[in-house]
Structures are given as C-alpha cells and as structure tokens.
C-alpha cells in the first residue's frame, strides 16, 4: 500500500493533480480541504456566522461540538473515488456548495480551531488506514491525500511526500481562470455564486498558514514547483515519484525471498537497491593522463607489479566479461598523477608466433593503451617470447618502458643490461615484490604516458556519441563515411586493408555530430596482405571497444561470409549497441532480396533484436534512416528497468510459464535486478540451474515487455542453495 501525501498553497493544482494521480494508479483520493469546507458549511447551516476575526474559547468549544456531531452522528460522508469525488451530509451532495464564495471565505475560521483540526486529522488517518484493507476503495493499493498538513501531521510516514508549489501570480491566474469557467447553480440555503472574483490566493495562504505550514518542505518532503509546468508535466513528475515508491516497496518484498538462501560474497551489492556503478569512464577522462598497459610473458611478475603500483587503492573500473584471458582496468595514481592501469593475462606467443595468434586480450590492451610497460624476468634473461612481444609492440607504435623484474638486490641490477638488446631504450631494474626501483620506473613511465599521443580514446570528447563503423574489408565503410560526411576524403578502394594509425572523425548524421572511431582503419590499406586480417580483426575489436554503438556493414551483393558474421559477433559480444547496415541493396534483384531474407531468418537469428537498415552508401538511398536507428539503439542500450518492475514481471512470467521439472525439482526465480546498463545486464537469483531454452525464453520475454531493440542484453544466473536447518 502506498500513501501519497501532497501539501501546497491555494490554487497550485493539488486537487486536480491528486485526482488524476489517484485515477492513474487506481488509488483512493482524499480531499481534506473538502472536509474542512464541509465542516464550515455544516456550522453555517446551523446558524454560525463564522465571521469572527478572533475566536473566543466559548465559540471554539461550541463549533468543535457541532463538528464532532457532524462526524460522530454519521451525518458526514466522503467519496474516495477520484472519478466521482464528493462530500455528503445525510446523503445530500455538498460538492458544489462547499466551493461557494461564502464557504471559501469562512472555512479558515473553522480550520484554524485546533480541536476541530484534531478531530479531522483523526478522521483522515482513519480513511488512510482503511485503504490498507483489501476491501477499501483501492483494494489495498494506495491513497492520495492532499491538503495543507498532510506531509507533516496527517501522514508524515507516507511513502511519497510532496510539497506542490508555484509562484503566487501563477496560482492567482489559475484560480481566476478556474473561477471564470465555473458556473455554479444551487438552491441550497447558502447561495452558491459563480466566478468568485474575491478568491485571493495570497489572502487564503496567509490565513491558512496561521495553523499549518505548507510554504516550506519539511525533512524528506520533495518540493515540486510547477509554475512553469503544464498539468500533464506536473502529473508525470508525480507519477514517476509514485512509480519509484512502488518499486522500492516491491524491492523489499522481493529481496525477502532470498532470506532463506545462502548468499555469497558479492551478492550484497545486488540487494541494497542502490544502482551499481556503471562502466563509464567519463569522470576518469577529466583527470587521468592516459592508459598504461602492463604486458609480458606469464610469471614475469606482472600482477605483483600491478598490485605494488595500486597499493590498497585498487578499484576495478572495467572488466571485460566473456574473455578467455584477463584484461582488467584499474584507476591508479602515482605522485599525484592519475592514470588507468591495464593488467593483462600472460602473453605467450605460440610456436607459430604472434602473427598467427588470434587477437589476444593483451594485444587488444596494447591497441587500446597510450603507452606500454613491458615486464621481463631479469633472472631468466631475454627469451624468444620476449622478442616476439617486442616486435608486436614495435608494430603497434606505442611508447614502451621495459621493467626488468626480480632483481631483488643491488648486486643483481647489472642483469638488466642484457635487455638493452631489445632496442627499447634503458631497461629499468626493479623488484615488484620488494618495491625496489618501482618508483623510478613509474616516474619514467608516467612521463612517457603524459607525452604520448593519445590513442586510447580515453581522452576523446565525451559529449559526442562514439560510433565504430565496422565490417569486413570492402563492404563500403569508406563510401558510407563519405556519403554521411558529404566529402570525398577517403580513398575508396576495391582492395581491402587497414593501417595502424587511429584517427577519429566527427561526422554529422541526421543533424547531429557523432564521433566515428578509427576511420583511418577504414580508409587506408596495408601493403602487405599477410597479417592484414589479423590486424584488421584486432583493430576492429579495439574500435568496437572504444565505441558505444557499432554500425556493422554488410555487402549484400556478395555472399554473407563467416568474416561478416564474426565482425557482427565481436560487436554483440563486446556489449555495444548495434545497427546492422545492409549496403548495396540497390544492386539486388528480386532473387537477391529473397536470398537475403532467407539469410536474415537463419544466419542472423541471434540478433533478431537488431535493427536492419537496407541502404546504398553510394547513392545515399535510405541513409537518412540511420539516425533514428542509432538513437533508438543507444536509448535502449542505456535503459534501466527498476527492480520492482522487473521482479513483478518475472514473477508473473514464472507463474504463467514455470521452468520444466528437472529430476523432480523445479528451479525457481527468487529475485532479479538490473545490475548495470550500457548494455543492460540482469542478474537473476534462482534455486537451480535454468535450461538454455528457458534463459532464451526469459530474454525474449524481457525484450517483448521492455523493448530492448538495438542492444544486446546480458543475463547472469546466480544459483543459491537453501540455508541448512541448524
Ligand atoms: N500545472 C498546471 N498548469 C496550469 N493549470 C493548472 C495546473 N495544475 C492545475 N491547474 C488548474 O489550476 C486550477 C486550480 O487547481 P486546483 O483547484 O486543483 O488547486 P488546489 O491546489 O487544489 O487549490 P485549493 O487548495 O485552493 O483548493 C484548476 O483550474 C486546475 O485545472
Ligand atoms: N489539510 C488541510 C486542508 C485544508 N485546510 C484548509 C485550507 C483552506 O482554507 C480550506 C479548504 O482547503 P482547499 O479546499 O482550498 O484545499 O481548508 C487545512 O487547513 N488543512
């Protein structure tokens, strides 16, 4: 049950917005002002003039008794239905008469009497409590209560507490407009008048604030100033607040499901309700000098060195899921200089050498770094693997500092000299274990890092969305780039190729500037074909990782190859927003189009969620469709589903389609949360392993319900055991 408490000055729109809010959620609606107005009417109907400026205790007593009789003798009634609100006396509808000029002008005389307030406050609390009951108007869902003292006195524990306010001139205008639209006809004993010109909101506030304080928000009360908001905008702000409150309440309920289960280290982070840290480097970009990758053969002491550099302040800023070898980025600091330190797994070139290796995480780390710290083993000495690594580093063209590790004493330092042979300048003798020489090493490395050309992308302007235009060689990347940028700057060649000079370009797509990553790789070509595929793949991976969105290009006039699909998988596996671009569509005849549709249903079935744009990069046909697809993909890539919504959806899904029995047991979903976005990542706690088909069913259902068009979503299943009885 949710209680929404709304206070505010006269004419701000409390009643109208509260009613609409209650209607939206199917909640009850309590207009406490109407209760005070009805009491004023009742007193006047019983001959009380209510025109005193100061009430004496005798009058207060008399009026309080009269009001008490109104309530305790069951004369008073109020409708909590927001679609048909109303106050009644002995069954007679007072709705119009209580809005009369006479009542409006005298109600403060009643509402300022404290014992009368106490009576009404008790009645209002009873109405609120009644809504907890499944038999209440809202069937136990909630109530919106509005007035002057609701957030502070009547319902200080309400889940949503709002002070709705607006500038006085705006409120007066609204009230005047409201009055001019109002035509009141009544034959009641009190004359109901239309167009109440004397309804002065400032005067009313002044009177009302003698006994209530509604001009300033109390602790925990959210102020919503709607001076410059339309009715619909105000309503939306309140709807969002209520949605959040519902989520919070549901969150607690769902987390309780885990009470009986053994939790593991790290689970706590998912159960606090706080949003987990995004994989977002934007803050770091402002303060760091660049990215330093630590590479070397296994067992040379890379991790020891990384730990030595990080000390206790280690903070993972990005890990790369789904990779066979580790590549972890940390935020680091040395002598007041901040930088990112990338730890890579052991890098052992196989017998065929590095060129034949697949793009290992260490190699990608080098591509994505601004400078490299090569760690070698001073005790073992120079090895063939070290030399292979060095030739690859040379090809990458990044500044390198050589750390000769395991030289624990001064006596051993001379052993570093052998590594001059690598041709990378002075080798630095260190002992990562004991910290010996590490300070000097870092001084040199950070100096190089600061001076290095920034190729990591860390320092690229962040206000532009980053796009990687990828696809196998010759699918039309340069043509599309030219078409989009409107200039023929790139050499469009039939011969495929890449280079190693990363160049980013700002390209205007659909009236908006985007940062296209590493367009040099798209435009130039490599003389030597051998190894080109390998570097192309490496480069594509690096470009994808620096991007937020991958435009994956296919040449549909040619057969779709494994390499095409591999590039697409690289983007999907890296968790980037994706738009698939089917280029050269204009070259297809009917038969060709049918062929592509068949492929779409088969080869592309892992990305049925992706948007596909059929276009011609050459003529520009349909390129205007890219912007919307890119915007949609990125919007969904950043989407967050609240834990409450997620769990109630999965709860219903599970009830309608339970997991099939396995070995007499049925795995159940206990709790789920969206751990991060960019791309959306969900963590689902279950009582048992979920079959692959059930996972796919969950993914499809999440997509149907929440719409994740254009973005991969990741789902992790955390199986938890029931606690053992002691
Ligand atoms: N955001 C808004 N923009 C413009 N008009 C609005 C807005 N919200 C409400 N109104 C209009 O302002 C008028 C006053 O609204 P309403 O009667 O709900 O105010 P109230 O705060 O309940 O006042 P009181 O406390 O005096 O009863 C109504 O005509 C309503 O339709
Ligand atoms: N909780 C409340 C609600 C209303 N009042 C007073 C303020 C007004 O003078 C009067 C009528 O209210 P309205 O219908 O204009 O919102 O009742 C109050 O003191 N406490």
Salient structural properties:
726 residues, alpha/beta, Rossmann fold, GMP Synthetase, Chain A, domain 3, 4 domains, seven-stranded mixed β-sheet, six-stranded mixed β-sheet, 23 helices, 24 strands, 18% strand, binds adenosine-5'-triphosphate, binds ligand LCLUPRNS, ribosome binding, cytoplasm, ribosome biogenesis, Cytidylate_kinase_dom
The CATH architecture category of the largest domain equals 3-Layer(aba) Sandwich
Mean pLDDT: 85
Annotation, overall tally of beta strands: 24
Q: Please indicate the count of domains.
A: 4
As a percent range, the share of strand residues is 15-25%
Uncertain spans, ≥5 residues at pLDDT below 50?
184-198, 277-285, 313-325, 351-359, 488-502, 525-530
Q: What is the SS-derived class?
A: alpha/beta
Q: Assign the CATH class of the largest domain.
A: Alpha Beta
- Overall outline: elongated
Instruction: State Rg.
Output: 35 Å
Order of strands across the biggest sheet? 10-11-12-9-13-14-15
Let me know the largest β-sheet: 7 strands, mixed
Oligomer: single chain
CATH homology superfamily of the largest domain: P-loop containing nucleotide triphosphate hydrolases
Bound molecules: adenosine-5'-triphosphate, the ligand Nc1ccn([C@H]2C[C@H](O)[C@@H](COP(=O)(O)O)O2)c(=O)n1
**CATH fold-type name of the largest domain:** Rossmann fold
If helices are DSSP runs of H or I spanning 4 or more residues, what is the number of helices? 23
* N-end to C-end Cα span: 35 Å
Helix content range of the residues, please? 25-40%
